[in-house]
Fold Agmatinase.
Amino acid sequence: MSTPDVPAGVPVGPIDSSTTPRYAGPATFARLPRRDQVERVDVAVLGVPFDTGVSYRPGARFGPTAVREASRLLRPYNPAQEVAPFARQQVADCGDVAVNPFDITEALQTIDDAVSELLAEGAKPVTIGGDHTIALPLLRAVARRHGPVALLHFDAHLDTWDTYFGAPTTHGTPFRRAVEEGLLDQSALTHIGIRGPLYGAEDLIADAKLGFGIVSTVDVADRGVPEIVAGVRERVGDRPLYVSVDIDVLDPAHAPGTGTPEAGGLTSRELLAIVRGLAGLNLVGADVVEVAPAYDHAEITAVAASHTAYELVSLMAPR
Ligand SMILES: N=C(N)NCCCC(=O)O
Ligand SMILES: [Zn+2]
Ligand SMILES: [Zn+2]
């Protein structure tokens, strides 16, 4: 299937599903063109098939492929944000970063280099993981370009722990490393969806010391999405914002295909509604991580992740 000829400057959109069946041909995110099929890229959807940083179930290395497959059904107009996300900006699938699964330090450098190159071209990265370790090199690249960024982190887990087995670079530690490295604006850090057992009460104290505020899953249920969104918008203001979505923020009923599931999570409806509520903020990059398709059923998790990525891409569209 070829990409239709379009005048220079007009974004190349997805393959038309009314003339080419959406289940035909190799999958790119939302059936968008590949990087090599377009002249420029405003939003770069990038896969990072890496899961060497996990503490429990492996398999997030297959996340990018699963999310692309599940994204075939996405359509070009997003009524919830009243925007056509592929029409006013060039969105392209930049493929997968070829990361070394046996050397975490080298893998992180490879990811940083790939994203730095896209940022230098003026593209905003929307990265599909991969385990949550990859947020660290993504933030390194983004902070090098924008300075310390505000962070909105959707997750069941804090991911601000110090080490596992003495290892500093894991999927449970990226945001502590990011604070230590000065990548984050400590006055605008929020976790949303936190729940589940911790190692000790001191986990919360250490996390607060780094500057994080916590909106727990119970807070979302008790206070409701509009109030949560208002609080986040107020905290972020006009700072450059990075959004990191660990799909395990969703209840295992909404996202069984993940490595460290915790009961009592958000619904996909709540997650999508909060993400949509960020419209107009200065979003400079985002990721959706921790999709492990071997534990998925009927693409439940991959569909949720693909829709989350679609909302994030929509947020980046000029209005
Ligand atoms: N980032 C994710 N998904 N999980 C972190 C869990 C770390 C732990 O095993 O305590
Ligand atoms: Zn998590
Ligand atoms: Zn996480």
Notes: The mean pLDDT is 97.
